[in-house]
Amino acid sequence: QVQLQEAGGGLVQAGGSLRLSCTASRRTFSNNAMGWFRQAAGQDREFVAAIGWKGGTTYADSVNGRFTISRDSAGSAVYLQMNSLKPEDTAVYYCAGARTPVATSQAELYHYWGQGTQVTVSS
User: Fold this and answer.
1) Could you tell me if 59 and 48 are in contact, meaning their C-beta atoms sit under 8 angstroms apart?
2) Which three-class secondary structure state does DSSP give residue 108?
3) Which pLDDT belongs to residue 73?
């Protein structure tokens, strides 16, 4: 029923920036928290950032101060601005939607997921 689509991944040099986007098909993000997770090769999926429907945010310590999550005013898209990228940021990045309005880092509260977009940071 719900489909999320990420875009904006690619190859970037260390210290560079990328902007990821996430859009939903046939529904809005209104009243639900949205989050970004990532999974590096051979590793578990980990939390990156989340935004609640009122705009409150939370970030993983590893990206705090470098990444910014945001949403558009209509609730039609969610973004992840990634600055000062490091090789350890290399991963597949996933957009996820929760059925709670509060920004949360708990993956079990996210009920639908995008297909992922690859981010590769070269040293």
Assistant:
1) yes
2) helix
3) 74
